[in-house]
Amino acid sequence: MIKTHRKKAKRRKKAPNWLIPAVGYLVSIACLIWVYHGFDWKRELPRIWATHPGWVAVAVAADILVYVTQGWRWTLVLRPVAAVSMWRSVQAIYIGLFANEVLPLRSGELIRSFLMAKWNGLEFGVVVSSVVVERLFDGVWLILFFFLCTRFVKLPQLLLDGSLILLAILVVLGALVALAIFMKHHAHAVVRQSRWKEKLWHVVEGLHAMGNSPSFYLAALVSFLYLALQAVPVFALMKGFGIPLNFWQAAVVLVILRLGSIPPQAPGNVGSFQALTKLGLMLFGIDKAAATGFATLLFFVVTVPLWLAGFVALALTGMKLRDIHKDARTRKTSIHAS
Predict the structure, then answer these.
(1) 294 partner at 20 to 30 Å CA-CA among 125, 163, 301, 336?
(2) Is the whole model's pTM more than 0.70, yes or no?
């Protein structure tokens, strides 16, 4: 009886499922209001349309290469546990990105992990672990990239403090991953104490195999290329739009976008994307109107190709996004329930 009452009490205390998405939508709306309040569309829209098409093409091509590179890296991370095809990897990534554009709380990460596990007969937890490894690589290079930028550009203290918080999170995450990679027996000892030990056992084995393969270290190097390519669309569009900033300043804008996209938010990061881009440009003295126009241009140039590619990648599976999301959530729930 006592246990039953405790379970009921926990259920009552649990926040409703709609709360976090609702907060994300409110933040998105607030950002959009701040970005576009007083924006003169009649005057600024012609400037957006006048962006040099050659630089737009460079931005789109670089953005596509970003996700092809991510697909290559994912195959390298997973190589010790499965021979994953490059095509399937990129396809799963684009479907996940498309899901992030239409579903809240970054559901695309869950969906792409589910698809990769389904297509290659892998344990879902192992694939999720490979995504965690990817994010660890991203975080390490992002911090290094950030501090490299500080040697060329003077940044506000708030950004420096935020980078230190991310660094602390990475240290903790890296320690857990390193435990599984280099001290498997100790990791198994910890896992035995968990109620999810059967699933976590596969995760530890997968991480150990991944981390002790030469492809793991190659994937770490490819992660630098993955991050550097993301700065190219920002810089190319600055050139095409007439924003007088250099590559390192464009890289700072990218870092601000990446750091700001970490918390769960509205689909496609609508609102926060424009607000963070505008803030980044204004740090370098770009006026509000030009910063808002550029933020609008950047959002559509990097998002529309993603929508199209994601839609095609999803259509080729013959499945519906709603069904994939439902199956992925069921698989996730089964892990927690086991």
Answers:
(1) 163
(2) yes
